[in-house]
From TrEMBL:
<keyword id="KW-0732">Signal</keyword>
<dbReference type="Pfam" id="PF17132">
    <property type="entry name" value="Glyco_hydro_106"/>
</dbReference>
<dbReference type="InterPro" id="IPR008979">
    <property type="entry name" value="Galactose-bd-like_sf"/>
</dbReference>
<feature type="signal peptide">
    <location>
        <begin position="1"/>
        <end position="20"/>
    </location>
</feature>
<dbReference type="InterPro" id="IPR053161">
    <property type="entry name" value="Ulvan_degrading_GH"/>
</dbReference>
<protein>
    <submittedName>
        <fullName>Alpha-L-rhamnosidase-like protein</fullName>
    </submittedName>
</protein>
Length: 840
């Protein structure tokens, strides 16, 4: 009997193990705001089940401010009830195959009730040449119950350890823990000092700051003042790395967590700070200005206020990961793409493609809000996010976006970088300029990259490399120490290799960094300097003597055959074996990687309006296949001799694909475009299927226009309607064997049937689906179910029932951070706007 019981136990254990859900990082994850932490286990489970069915891979719990009327059921952060809710989430996540991350705090940035005044952020101003130090007084922004309090001083010697002691106590009581701890972007506004700053400056910079303090306010360009400013910023950067980023990461790892870190916004060197984390995380805030035809940008979005996403800023996170061999690089994705209730899947996809191109491979949507199941539409919403939750107007088609992200990230996460150029980031030149941020410090934010990146020679050089088709990463002063040189002159970080070290035109360089460059050059590394060598060593102490040593080192360096001050960068890069990809010249964006066996892998996105199809030469050529994550794999036509091959690529604006020598996957339906098309016109039958506030009357249309122009309640309708038309094909059926159906302008997603055969769902630009295999000569029946935005319904809802706006703190605001009021909106175009045609 014992043997039988043992055998049964083993069988059950094996069955349970084989059926256990595995954590997926290739599927996109989402921020999940717990408003007031007024959560229940039943609702947590219900929402996790929705996330799982939608194709998400995990959630990130962020407790924030509460909801009016729910004060009695709010749960205090890190209390026993909160910890049990968190553990329930982790347990249910394991059951459903969902990972769970959490912020090491509530709201942002780090701070809370256990941050005493002595450990809170400090600000220093100079009055009559002396420091006047005051607390910033900043409190945790958007704090949840139990998380309120002062913001932590990020430079304090013992601040992080004291802050984390609260979490030590809490987690000692838990058996289930999240995968990762998260640290949001810096946002410690005005923080530029700490209690022992003078002593630390003396120890690190070897002179008394107080005797030179007035020079920090100098605006005359005094050379000594510039050196002091650089030394001041260098000290802040070191303290931030050593006392904030590293202790938090070390504590997290010791407690079994990995770390996701948004270093941007800080006064440190982003490359070093991102490097300290297990998963560096950037942010895509707002809408990029892509020239994809038909792609909408919310006219209310303020570039002056928020800036626009920039792939060069994103590359700081991916560069740090590449150099350190980190598999995952994440992004806060979709923040303020457009106003509430106005974001479509077609707007989200190109923003994600831009992230992929910049080296990001672990998408976190921004985001979803916990909302009780009994709450009516629109439920609880976070003030700054795109709604990716159950009440979103695109929830039915959300799995399609998630499958696309999943398929892309599987390849991106399981391949290695293949970049030729290592670009040194001369941060000292930035520190030498007047800070455009507050408190006299440079904050390296992702929102306004013009304030710290684009105006520098480094930024201009990086933009040129990006636009001209070079594959590159950035490297910091500290990271240069990781590199060795292989026999062929290739730079090797231990995780990534590069053919050239490129030093931008710069004025200032530290003596230590010059020694590192000289070390690498002496070992055979190929070094290019763009335009001119640096002229001035950093560090104010003994500057005259150190400048002599620096100049002598520069002379030695520039005399080496493998070091060149370049006046023709393209030619010199080519001489060093650097590949310039023709994809960029054609108007395409790309990232080049390599799979485990060295097979080249390109991800290519057409986010412009200059390329449609043509012959292209790839730097890593060969017999290539086009792998479309949405449609399958096809063979590319090729021409030319070995080493000089070209492939014929068709990629319309808004489309993306992988190019690889691997043919894994199913065959994609062939779609040809000879320039011919057949307009599908006639009498369209329009029937409203489901939605809010009620169903408008059916209509017959001879021209496709927005259904908001119809009578009845159509201008307020949010939901789904079916278009139906019958048509015959002109000419022989064989002509249309490889035809595609072009729906023109779709507001916002269209599920298409042709002769009762599903063609799929058109949810992104271009709204084109293969159709040839479903066509017949006569009596074709085309049915298109279109789902629109919820914005039009909210125009009515905000008139009739504005009581959904019941949140504390900032409540709910529009994209300009003014009080949200949808009643002032004009109707958003909705439905099938066309023209609809067959292309063949």
């Amino acid at each position: 009997m014992l043997r039988i019981l043992l055998a049964v136990f083993l069988i059950l254990a094996q069955f349970a193990h084989s059926n256990a859900q595995k954590l997926s990082t290739s599927k996109p994850w989402t921020y999940w705001w717990w408003m007031g932490s007024a959560v229940t286990k039943a609702d947590i489970t219900a929402q996790l089940e929705y996330f799982s069915k939608s194709g998400l891979g995990g959630v990130h719990i962020i407790p924030i401010y509460g909801v009016k009327g729910y004060e009695k059921v709010a749960i205090s952060f890190l209390g026993n009830q909160w910890l049990e809710a968190m553990q329930h989430t982790v347990r249910e996540g394991k059951r459903l195959g969902l990972g769970v991350d959490m912020t090491t705090g509530t709201g942002w940035p780090f701070g809370g009730p256990n941050v005493v005044a002595a450990a809170a952020a400090q600000s220093m101003t100079i009055v009559d040449g002396k420091p006047v130090v005051k607390p910033t007084g900043q409190k945790v922004k958007r704090a949840a119950p139990g998380g309120e309090g002062l913001v932590l001083d990020p430079f304090n010697a013992n601040g992080m350890a004291e802050y984390l002691s609260r979490f030590d106590s809490a987690f000692s009581k838990t058996s289930e823990k999240p995968r990762a701890m998260y640290n949001d972007s810096y946002e410690a506004y005005g923080a530029n000092w700490t209690t022992d700053f003078v002593q630390q400056f003396q120890s690190r910079r070897k002179y008394d700051l107080l005797s030179k303090l007035s020079l920090l306010n100098d605006s005359t360009g005094n050379s000594e003042a510039t050196l002091v400013k650089i030394d001041y910023h260098q000290t802040l950067a070191e303290l931030l790395l050593e006392r904030y980023a590293k202790p938090w990461t070390e504590w997290s790892r010791a407690n079994g967590f990995v770390t996701r870190y948004q270093a941007h916004g800080s006064p440190g060197n982003l490359l070093d700070l991102y490097d300290a984390a297990d998963i560096p995380e950037t942010e895509s805030f707002g809408t990029s200005r892509f020239s994809i035809p038909g792609l909408r940008v919310d006219p209310d979005y303020s570039i002056d206020q928020f800036g626009t996403p920039n792939p060069l800023a994103m590359k700081f996170a991916s560069s740090a990961a590449n150099l350190s061999g980190k598999k995952l690089v994440s992004s806060e994705t979709g923040t303020w793409l457009a106003n509430h209730f106005k974001v479509s899947l077609s707007q989200i996809k190109p923003q994600i493609d831009e992230l992929f191109i910049a080296g990001i491979n672990h998408i976190f949507y921004h985001g979803t809000t916990y909302s009780p199941e009994r709450e009516g539409f629109p439920g609880w919403l976070f003030y700054a996010s795109t709604n990716f939750g159950k009440s979103s107007h695109f929830s039915e088609h959300f799995p399609l976006l998630n499958r696309y992200v999943d398929l892309c990230q599987r390849l991106l996460q399981n391949s290695k970088p293949d970049n030729d150029v290592l670009v040194y980031f001369p941060i000292h030149d930035l520190w030498a300029t007047k800070a455009k941020s507050g408190a006299g410090v440079h904050l390296l934010e992702v929102h306004h990259v013009d304030r710290w990146l684009l105006d520098l020679p480094f930024g201009k050089l990086s933009e040129r490399l990006w636009k001209e088709g070079y594959a590159f990463d950035f490297v910091s002063d500290l990271q240069l120490k990781k590199f060795t040189v292989e026999a062929n002159g290739v730079l090797n970080s231990g995780n990534a290799t590069y053919r050239t070290l490129l030093v931008p035109s710069a004025t200032y360089l530290s003596g230590e960094t010059l020694k590192e460059i000289e070390r690498l050059a002496n070992a055979g590394a190929k070094v290019l300097v763009d335009g001119k060598l640096p002229t001035t060593v950093t560090g104010n102490v003994n500057h005259h003597e150190r400048q002599k040593i620096f100049s002598a080192s520069l002379t030695r360096l520039s005399s080496l055959k493998n070091v060149k001050v370049s006046s023709d960068l393209n030619a010199d890069l080519a001489e060093n074996g650097v590949v310039r990809e023709q994809l960029a010249e054609k108007g395409l964006t790309f990232i080049r990687k390599k799979e485990a066996d060295g097979v080249p892998l390109y991800f290519v996105a057409n986010v412009g309006n200059t390329f449609r199809e043509g012959w292209i030469r790839l730097g890593r050529g060969g017999h290539l296949f086009k792998s479309d994550p949405l449609r399958g794999v096809s063979t590319l036509k090729a021409r030319g001799s070995k080493g000089n091959e070209e492939v014929f690529l068709r990629l319309l604006p808004g489309e993306s694909c992988f190019l690889t020598t691997s043919a894994d996957g199913y065959d994609a339906p062939e779609v040809s475009d000879t320039g011919q098309h057949f307009d599908i016109k006639g009498k369209w039958e329009l029937t409203f299927l489901n939605g809010k506030p009620d169903l408008p009357a059916p209509a017959q249309l001879t021209a496709l226009t927005s259904w908001t122009s119809l009578p009845d309640s159509a201008e307020y309708f949010s939901g789904k309607a079916k278009y139906r038309i019958t048509f015959d094909l002109p000419g022989p059926i064989a002509t249309y064997a490889n035809a595609a159906l072009d729906l023109g302008d779709v507001r916002e997603a269209a599920a298409v049937k042709l002769n009762d055969k599903d063609l799929g769902v058109a949810w992104h630009i271009p709204f084109i689906l293969p159709a040839g295999r479903a066509l017949k000569a006569k009596g074709n029946i085309l049915e298109i179910e279109v789902t629109n935005l919820s914005a039009n319904y909210m125009r009515l809802r905000d008139q009739q029932q504005p009581d959904w706006k019941k949140f504390y703190d900032i409540n709910i605001v529009d994209i300009t951070y003014k009080k949200f009021d949808a009643t002032r909106w004009h109707p958003m175009p909705s439905g099938l706007l066309g023209p609809v045609k067959l292309i063949y």
